[in-house]
Every structure is written in structure tokens, then in C-alpha cells.
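Before relying on records like the one below, remember that each one covers exactly one chain. Contacts with other chains, cofactors or solvent are not represented anywhere in the record.
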Amino acid sequence: MRPRVHAVAVFVASLALTPGASAQGGGSLAGSVRTAEGTPLPHLVLVLEGPSGPRTLLTGPDGRYRASGLEPGEYSVRLSISGFVLDPEPRVSVGTDEARLELSLAPAPVREQVTITATRGDAPGSTVGVSVRVLEAEQIAQREPSSLLQLLQDVPGVSVARTGAVGHQSSAFVRGGESRYARILVDGVAVNQPGGAFDFGSALPLELERVEVVRGAASSLYGTDALAGAVQLVTRRAEPGVGPSLRAEAEGGSFAWRRFQGGTSGRAGAFDWNAGLLRLDTDNEAPNSAFTETAGAASLGIELGGRSALRLVVRAADSAVGTPGQVAFGRPDLDARLERTDAVASAQLRRVSDTVVHQVRLGLALTDQLSLNPLDSGSYVPRAGDRVAAFPFSDFPDPAGFGNDSRRWSAGYQAEVQAGARNLVTVGVEGERETGRLGSGSGDVITPERNNVGVYVQDRLAVGQRLNLTVGGRLERNASFGTRVVPRAALAYRLRGGEDATIVKASAGAGIKEPTFAESFGVSFFAKGNPDLDPERSRTFDVGVEQRLFESRLRAEATAFHHDYRDQVAYTILDFTTFQGSYVNLGHTRARGLELSLEAAPTATVRLRGDYTWLDGEVLVSTSDFDAVYAVGQALLRRPEHQASVYAGFEGRRVGGGATLVRVGRRADSDFVGLGITENQAYTRLDARVRLRLGHGLEAFVVGENLLGREYQEALGYPALGRLVRAGLRFRAAGARP
């Protein structure tokens, strides 16, 4: 409880500060620092030079700064950050009254990334010391992805696997962790199923402002599920100063691909809005693989006056996809399918003062999934080349279907406080209620409930002009495993400043994950839940260096990491006579590796990016006595040792385009049908796109995926989609963004 008491004391002391007071007998200077898009830049070091000598200032939680007791005269301001341009060096005259200087930072050729997920507040990425990648709206538009999974695969440290084509079950693995080891957030609301699982299969890139991926344990801020990292999707908002606009697009292509999308955004007085709808249909090539989805997203903001604002965000999707099974090894199941409805809603009330930002947030995430298999498709003997399974596989029809429904209600309060001259303290409390309904309509159904509460504190400290420290922790009370404390610390040290900056970064943290509903509350005799399970745990650390060159036209980054995952929940047979089974904390794996990134802007119209990940993952304590792929010493399932992506793009006045080459190396896998295949082959995929602006807001585009026509399987037995070519028209009225 000591971290919470300390946080409350700091918070109360900070509220007692009087931000408007100035020293007697001198002038003062105040203002704010924001990006060109209006994003505030807190905890940013400014150097003020003039008659009072050099003075170091720190921006507050809303990017505001203030200096008092200044002798009259002319002052200049310098920044201690790279990735932004402040040219010419701003100057201001200070007299006996308060002077103001508002600073708007233009992006450098390779711009600085501003993240909210790494610290739960706006922060320049180079100051937090944590490994983070931010995919902004422009980069998402350039990629023209058919699914969210494509965007994640381009991020270093992240590998993906999909059981077929768009819409089919999809997983993302962050730094060698299991697919349930990353906290998935939508506008601040966790959308993982209880226990951490999240299926990216139906996740489409609809109305996204940015996607943020934090690598490294983030449980100090987010609690359960964030063992390996966190992924946050941020819904698009109306751009400041832009009037009402409309956008619409339609495209068609291979495999009966048809997609229609439209939206609107704008501002009117105290209101701003952004809303969009999407409809996608495709047959996905293989028998019974067709996927359909209708989705929508909306964001509404209301300025309440007094520097307060309310924002409401809603996202929802309804989809259906056929699930033919491992058609590479046998006959397809022609009647099995998955029907799914997902929705997330959030309401955030935000109040800003010079030294404190208060936030109150309410959230709801739900998913209703129904797996249907009404007919018996008969048995088959799996085959792959010369390999033949020793026993046949049978279909297991369930006319009533298997339901997997869950709800997560959440509420929280957070304050960012400028505490003293060098500290930006974040304190918060949040509660979560999880409910579910799991099981077959013709069998056992469980309806579990679980309540969780967490209190967290974080201190971002600037030491001089070069060093930024971030230290924090969270006290988590979980209804399944009790109370745990999870800490995190990070540093960013600027060896050299200016446009060709050199920054050394390091972070270390702990993570926790609650059991799934089935693991804690299952009632089946053969898989009975264990209410005494401990949380799965992680210990992670990384160290890296970021280098900018050629006046920030080139940014290179290298990061070495080591993640240790302990107490992994495993199924075990308690009695081999009756085959009664349950769950225990047993598994232990390790993942270490190297991430390399390179980003360049050689000209105003050309962008280059390259990312590479080397992963050395190993099973240290097995979670299974029956499958050799989980044996001690084996590599981690579906996590490649080598993975790379290279992007080259250009944006001219009328023509734009680009290409992405993805290379995924060999990786451990299992056929799970008795064929004895334990390795999946490497593959290379080339995606490309071109856009032609026709005038009057109209644009034509062509996108190709897997243009080399390679045959491969991201998960053994499930052939990936062949060459997909789609083309369409896009219309944007005045004021609309890509």
C-alpha cells in the first residue's frame, strides 16, 4: 500500500501549488508547446536564455510552461528534443507584465512519435525509454491494408499467424509471448476476453487515427494481460480547423472481394465528430471460407467550457466466416462457421489546468461468438505429401453451437500532476467487472463473474537536459489470484542533442495475467477449473540506442530484449484411471532477441522503412507431456527466429504508391493431427499499391497482395490466400483526410 499512499500525498501536495503566482519584482513568460496537429507535448525540457541567464523549464501535463521572476529584456527558447523543427529560434520580449509565447512544432523529415500508451498520457517517444511503435493515419493509408494484422506484422518484435485468409482466427505474438500476453485497448478500453485472449480475425482498419504497439511488460499501468506489451487502437477524430467533410470509397477484386466504405467528420461550435461505416464481402478462395462483415466507428467530442471536454467513442462489428479446418491435410468441413459480434464504447471526461489534467473514463467491451457445426461431415485420414496419420479424424457436430460471450465494464479516474520543477506524476484508480457465458447449448454452460481493482502511480522525472527517468508501479487486486504489485522503470539518456541526436534507452518491468474463465471456473469433469491458480508472470528488460542522422532524414534504432514468462497455466490429468483433468501453474518459457529499425526520408516525397527481428525463444518447463512441440528445449510455437519487412513509398502531387516486402523465417509449429510435422516453412510476401488523383476529390487506386503468388501457411494446415488484386475509387470532399 505504500506506493498508493505516496502517490496520494504527491497528488494532494501538487494541487496545493498556485500555478499563477510569479516571483516578486520580475516579469514572467507563459505558453504551451504543441505539435502542428495540436497535440500537447508534456514533460518537455525547454532552455530559456536572456538577461536572467539560462533557465531550464519543463512543460506540464497539457504541454504548458511558465517562468517567473524574469528580468526585462529579450529571451530565446531552445528545445531539448529531436524529431521536431522549431525554426527560426523563437524570441520574445519580457517586461513587467506576463508575456506569452505559443510554440508549434513542425515535424522533422523523420518525425518524432508521440505515444499515449507507453505512459497513459501524451509523451514524445524518445523521452519514455520504452520500446514503442506508432503507426499514424498517414502510414496506415499508405499501407492500404486489408486487415489490421498486416499492420502489426510490420512492427518489430511482433509476429502473427492466421488460420487461412481475412476473417479467420488470427493471433499476434509480442516478443515471444503467447498470443494472450498483450493488452489490447481501443480508445483506452481493454477488449481482451477475460484471461487475455483476443482474436484479430475480424479486426479491420476502420477509421483509425493511429495504432500504438508497446513492447515490454506494461502491467504497471494496465494490470492483467500486459505481460509482453500493449496494443492500442485510437479512433480517428476531426482535425482542428477543418470544416465538415465527406469521404466514400468502393473497391472490388479477386476472390469476389467487395468493400464499401464511407464517413464524415467536422466541427461545429463546441462539437466535433467523426463517423464511418464499412461493408466487406469475400469468398477467400478455399471452400467454406467466405467472410462478411459490417462495421462502424464514431467519435463525438463536446467542449464544456472551463477547459473541460467530453468525448464519446463507439466501435462495433458484426461478422460471419466459414471455418473449413486444416484443408491442407484433408477434406474441408463445409458447414462449420463462426458468427461474431464485437462492440466497444467509452466516455471520457477531461479537465485541464496549468498543472493538473483530470480524466474520468467509463468503458464497455463485449464480444458474442457462436461456433456452429450442425452436420457430421464424416471422418478422414490426414495426409501431407508422403505422411499419413496413424488414425482417422472425426467431425464433432454440435447443432446448438458453442457460445463464447463476455462483457468487460470498466471505470477509472486518472490525474497527471506537475509536481515540482522536474516531475510529472500520474496517479490513477480503475475497476473492472468481467462476466461471461461459455459452453454448448447442448452441454454444460458456465456464467462466471470476476471483479478487479487496480491503483497505479508513475513518476516521469527530468534530470538536467539529457536524462528522462520513468518509474512506476501498480497494486492489482484480482478476484481470481488476489493481490499483486507490478513495477516498471525506464530511462532515456540523450548522449548528443540536436537534429543528429543519439539516445540510449532501457526499461525493465514485471507483468501479470489472470486465468481464463475456463481455467478458473470450468465445470467439466475432464477439464475442471482451478480457483487457486496464481497469475501467469513475466520479467522483462531491454536496452537500445536510437540514432538520427542527416538533419533527421534518417533514424536508426537497435534494441536487445530478454523476456521471461513464468507460472504459465497448463492442463494436466489428475487421475489416469478416470482421465479427470484440471489446470496448474507449470510452464516456463524464455524469449530474447534483437530488433532493428531504419526509417528514412531522403526527399519530401520518398519514404523508406525497414524492420528486422531476431528471436531466440525456448521452452524451459513444458506445459504438455503429450506433444513434442512443447517439450523442454523446443522453440516457441509459431514464433519465427527471423522476420523482416521493407517498405518503399512515394507521394507525388498526382501519383503515389509503395511496396512492402515481408519475409518470415522457419518456425516451430504442429499439425496437431498426428502427422508428426513440427516445423513450418519460411515464406516471402510482396504487397504493393498505387494511387492516381483524378481531381475534384476523386482518386483511383490498385492494391496487390502476395503478388509473387507464393503458397504458404501461416499456421500449419491452413493455406494462406493466393494473389489478391483489388481496385477501386475513393472520393474525399474538401477537408477530408486520408
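Residues 233-732 form a domain with the Maltoporin; Chain A fold (CATH 2.40.170.20).
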